[in-house]
Amino acid sequence: MRMSHLHHFTEHHRYCVSREFGLSVLDGRMLGSVYQPMVGAFAISLYRLLFEHIPAEAIGYSGVEQQRRLFMTLGVEPNEKGRKYLIDQASRLEAVGLLQTCRIYMPETDDYMYEYELLAPLSPTEFFATQHLTLLLRDKIGKFAVLALREQFWTREPEELSRRSLGKENISLPFYDIFELNTHVIDYELEQALAEVAIVRQPGAREDGDQAIGYSDIILRFPRESVNRSHVEKLRFDHNQMGVINYVARKYDLGPQDICRLLDEDGVFAPDGEVILDTLQHIASQHFRQDLKRQEKREVAAAKVVSLRSAVSEENSDAIAPLEQAVEMEYYVEVPPQFLSKCDIHQYNMMLRNEPYTRLLQTFFPGTVPGQLLDIFEKIDLNYKLNGEVINVLIHYLMTMVASGGDQRMNRNFVEAIASNMLVKQVNTYEKAVRYIRDQSKVKGKNASSPAAGGRTRTYTRNGNRPAKPDIPIALDDGSAGTVSEEEFAAMMKKAAEIKAGKKKGVSKAP
Predict the structure, then answer these.
(1) Nearest alpha-carbon partner for 401 in 441, 371, 428
(2) With bands split at pLDDT 50, 70 and 90, how would you rate the model's confidence at 34?
C-alpha cells in the first residue's frame, strides 16, 4: 500500500470490501499452512476479517463503513503507530497476491475512500509452480519443511493407475451431444437484465499498467454536475465506445483520471451520445504533448542536482482495444541496426504492426522524442487520416533510410511528400505499406546503378518566377587527349613550317 502521508489513511476514512470467490476447506488450509508463515498471523487475521464483510454464500461488495471498525476489531490503536502497522500488514497481503487496495477520490466530500479487493489463495499446484513464492516460503520455514508441506497436499494415485502399459481413453460426452439450445432467438432483454444486475467487475477493468479502463473506473471519478454526465452513464452497456476510449487511452498513455478530464470537455460527445473520436484524439494529443514538456523540464531540473541517474522503465504491451494482428512472413521487414540487440525479427514486426506510432517513436530515441518529429506524424495521423500501422511502416522506412548513411534529412516536406504519395496510391493496410516501401527501394536501387546516375543532368529550379541556369555538361579529360600518332605529329610540324614561311615572306614584302 503506497501511502505518502498518514493523514490520508485514518480511522475516519470510509472503505468497502469486494470479492468474487468463496473459500473452500483447501483454501483455508493454504492460508493457515502456507501463507501464514510468509506474512504472519495478524495479516491472515486481517484477510479473514475482510472476507467476512460479505456473507460466505455470496460474492460482490460490502457496505461502506468507516475504517474505525478495522482498528477496533483487530485491537489496533487509532494513532500514528497503529496506522503504520495496519498499512504494513495490508502491504504484506498485497505482496503475496491476496489483496489489492484502491484509493478513490470522492469530489463531493473532497476526501478518499478505500476499496479492498480480496483475491483467492492459489491452489497447491499453482503456488508451488510460482518460484518467488516458493523461495519466500523456503526462507521462512526451510527447504525440507517446504518439501514436507508440499507432500501433505497431494494423495498418491492407486498403483493400478500408475502402470504405463494401460491405455487411457476419454469417453466423456460434450455439452452439445446432450443438450440443444435455441440459438435462432437472441434474448436481448435477458442480456441487458443480466448486465444491469451484474456487480462483479469484468476481467481487465483495472488501471494496472496497460490493462483496460472499465466503466466503473470512469463513473466513480466523473463529476456529477458535468453536462456530459448523462452521456458517460450510457457507456455502461456500450462496449464499442468503451473500446474507442481505451484505444485513445493506450495510444496517449492516459489513466482513468485523465480520461475523465477529457470526457468532461465540450464537443467530445455528439448530440446522440456517441464519442467523437477526432475531437477526443485531438485534446488527448495536446494533453500528451504537455505531459512530455513537463516531464522534459523535470528531467532537466533533476539532472542539475543528480549527476548519475539510472531510469529503466520497460512497459508491458498487452494489446487492449484493438486485437493483436499477426504478420505474415512474406511481409516481414528487416530489423534496423539499432534494434538488433533488443528484439528479433518476429518481435519487431509484431511491434510495427500493433503499436501506436507514439510508442514506436519512443523506441527509436533514448530520451524524449523531438517535438518537431511528433508534430509531423501528428498531422499525418489527425489531418491526413493515415492508418496507424501504415504510419509505423513509414517511420520504419524513414528511420532505415536515415540510418543507412544517406544524405536525405527527415524534414517536414520530405515526410509529408511520402505520406501524400501513400494516400494517392491508397496505401491503407500494413501489407500495402510494406509493398510500397519495397517498390520505392527497388526504384532507388535502379536509379543508383544506372549509367545516367553518375553523369550530370540538366535541372531547372525556380527562384521566384525565373528559372535557374541549367548545369552545362563538362568534358572531362580521361588522359588520352594529349597523345598523338607519329603521322599526325609530322603533319602538324609541316603545317607549322608553312605558317612560319608565309609570315617571313609577308614581312619581306612590307615597305
Answers:
(1) 441
(2) very high
Dig out the grid coordinates for 97 from the structure: 497476491
| CA–CA distances in Å: residue 427 to residues 1, 350, 411 | 49, 19, 21
Considering only residues 24 and 498, tell me which one the structure prediction assigns the higher pLDDT.
Answer: 24
Phi-psi region of 478 (alpha: psi -120 to 50; beta: other; left: phi over 0): alpha
Rounded to whole angstroms, how far apart are CA atoms 99 and 48? 11
Predicted confidence at residue 157, as pLDDT, reads 79
Contacts of residue 8, Cβ cutoff 8 Å, sequence gap at least 6: 103, 112
Query: Got the DSSP string for 316-366?
Result: P----SSPPPP--GGG--PPPGGGTTT--HHHHHHHHHHS-HHHHHHHH-S
Pick from 12, 205, 23, 198: which is nearest to 100 by CA?
A: 205
Flag whether pLDDT at 232 surpasses 70.
Answer: yes
Q: Which pLDDT tens digit goes with each residue over 387-438?
A: 888 998 988 888 888 777 666 677 788 888 888 888 888 888 889 989 988 8
pLDDT digits (tens, 9 = 90+) for 324-353: 778 888 888 888 877 777 788 888 888 888
